[in-house]
Amino acid sequence: MASSIVIVGAGPVGLLLALRLAQSSLPVTILEALPEIANSPRAMAYLPVAVAELARAGILDECRRRGTAGRKICWRRLDGGVIAEMERVGVVREKEEEKEGEGEGEGDRDGQGEAEYENLVLGQQVLAEIILKRLEGLKGVRVLFGKKVVEVLQRGEGSAEGSVVVVTQSSDGEERFEAAYVVGADGGRSSVRKLIGVEWEGFTWPEQLVATNVYYPFDKYGYYDANFICDKDHWALIAKVTKDGMWRVSYGEPGHLSYDELKQRQPMKYNALFPGPKPLDYTLTMWSPYKIHQRCAATFRVGRVLLAGDAAHLCNPFGGLGLTSGLLDAGALADSLIARLHGTASDAILDVYAATRRAVFKDVVDPMSAANKLRLHAYDGDVDSLGDSDGFLQLVKSATREEKGRMMVEGVRGLRVDMRGFLEEAVAGVE
């Protein structure tokens, strides 16, 4: 089976892109180096603009069934005292588009032709499983695990008959996959990005992050759905993940500590961060350390190869901007590739995707996510004065409930690029 598109990476971004393409009757092959979907404590929060993309793909009902709605967020001192708080009353209202395939009927209607989308909390491995299951029922889709990409060869670059060949190594030996376009959605260490020679701009933070999943009754002590702990030594995020009481506790640690040293310090960190009597009684289910990056590819397109998600950009996870941005990449790239391969837009639409999505990261995601991290531990003075010295938290404290809702909606709208306007402009360039 020949593929119109080869997608490298079976994470949520690559899978969502594949689903949208398959729903538009475009053959797609997904190549994943791992033997199965990665199961580790990674992204779990999706802002409303990303939730809208899940609705467009027809999987929102299932995501809502298995996930939770993150409603209340706060910034706390280490002793649990609240510095500032806001209820996530804001939703993003989108005009309902004509649904593709099984997407019909998704979303909560709010008047004629509109739908409302909330903040969603769902482990990214669960989202990947949901999309993978949906892909199983579609024609023209191949999902191949254990395929490590070792070479990307472009043929006839710039010509209408051009193509890309992806070479993989696996237990089956060397294999070649040819397509009209290739998308690298294979994470921060992207093989595709390296093979096409794109510079990885930005920096790695001197601190590292330890992400854990744990069962502990934070609700009993008045903790909200998402709690940012502001402390120079023990800064963290404590957030509810599942309806059965599992929480994500992600905390900062010095960058020089080894894996073993981090593991040994875990009980101490919990002891400092958790409310309630000691010794603590909890069930730790997952633990994993990560480097923290603020990086962006110098370009999201080289010929017939495009980048999306973490392969294109990385930011620290505080604020839920990473995977949200990746899913928005998938939505914009799906619109662009569908228009291009169905002949309703010229090849230039892919340059628009690359330029606009990179600009969103550089101008919005990067500075916003960096500020979210620094607010937790790099503040001046005493933590008790943080609510009065930090401009954002000052605004949160003084705003009304309705104003906070508008703040959240306006704050996330800039993350999305609506390709429909560009598609209309690109019609004139169709070959």
Features of the shown structure:
alpha+beta, 431 residues, FAD/NAD(P)-binding domain, 12 helices
Task: Report what the structure shows.
The protein is of the alpha+beta class. The protein has a domain at 3-69 and 120-202 and 294-376 and 416-429: FAD/NAD(P)-binding domain (3-Layer(bba) Sandwich). The chain is built from twelve helices and 22 strands. Strands 1, 2, 11, 12, 13, 14, 20 and 21 form an eight-stranded mixed β-sheet that branches. An eight-stranded mixed β-sheet has the order 6-5-16-17-18-15-19-22, sandwiched between helices. Helix 7 (321-341) runs antiparallel to helix 8. The longest helix is centred in the C-terminal third of the chain and has 30 residues, at 348-377. The chain is globular, with a radius of gyration of 22 Å.
C-alpha Rg (nearest Å):
22 Å
Multimerization state: single chain
Which band does the percent of strand residues land in? 25-35%
The fold-level CATH name of the domain at 3-69 and 120-202 and 294-376 and 416-429 is: FAD/NAD(P)-binding domain
Euclidean distance between termini CA atoms: 26 Å
Low-confidence stretches: 98-105, 107-113
Average pLDDT over all residues:
88
Give me the secondary-structure category.
alpha+beta
CATH homologous superfamily annotation of the domain at 3-69 and 120-202 and 294-376 and 416-429:
FAD/NAD(P)-binding domain
